[in-house]
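Late entry, evening session. Most of the bench is empty. Finally got around to the prediction I had been postponing all week. Sequence below, unchanged from the version circulated by S.P.
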Amino acid sequence: MYLDDFLKTQAGKEFTKLNKESCTYNFLYKYWRDQLFERIMRLFVWENTYDEITNKGVPPKEIEMRLVLRGHCGIAKYKGDITAFFGNFYGPTKYYDEWTGYTVHCPVYSGTKRIGRDIVVVNNNSLRNPTYNLVHHYATMLGHTETTLINALINVRDSGGVPVVATEKQKQSIIEYQNNVFNGKYGVVTDIGNLGIEYMGTDKKTNQDVMDIMEVREKLIKSFYSDIGVRSAFEKRNNTVMAEVEADTSLLLLNLSDMIHQREKACEQVNAMFGTDWSVHVAEEIDYGTENERVQFDTSTEIHSNNAEDDNYVELQ
């Protein structure tokens, strides 16, 4: 098998080190942080911002990355080429959240720009809030949820309490036994010296059913999409009445419309200032209020599916 051969190489051995670590919260948090960050980065599609042949302009990911992480992004020229910058505001006006200047910085340049004269500031939303806080929030909950799920699956193999030992030999024996349990093998505890090993505390098995934990995981992913304005595949049309769909669609539009509005406004300003033809739109795979046809994210399989059947719809008068 290809993977067996690859994992024997030096590069492959780095993957095998993650075997047991991948069941810890620290690993699962990082996994979900990266996954959710990537999904948010794909919400919007920018057109005509970058020419791959000439390597001129701004790659769309550079714009979205700054908007997600900081809530705003500066677009200005550097050595004749339009560039996306991280930056900070300066020059207060009569409002606390409005400024006249923007301090830009990148690995090869830093400087000050006047907003509206030589730089356009793109906002993630009208309050310039970054989306990364949302990513962190759900990555934390999903990391804990999957850690609980893994523990539930493993602990049903051994429902004893927490082992307390008196010697180093007993400690090593317990570690070997727990490794066997983790890997689904038979194992025994060797109590050298007949000193006894005590199990303290309550039963390690969780009170939550495994399927209940799986449902929590799925609902958290659905909730993440809803918070950014995307409808998920958990919302089945044949189980939803028309009034619920209309109310839900309004909330989804409220969440996402502000973000797309700020990006469209920035495109107009960039085009006016630099003579470009930038445009932006919500990714076609995303459903945030489309009539008749619903393009949905299947959060369990990551396969997009269309569901436009209304036969079982119930309309409330």
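Two things to note before I forget:
The chain is about 45% helix and 20% strand.
The longest strand covers residues 81-92.
Will write this up properly tomorrow.
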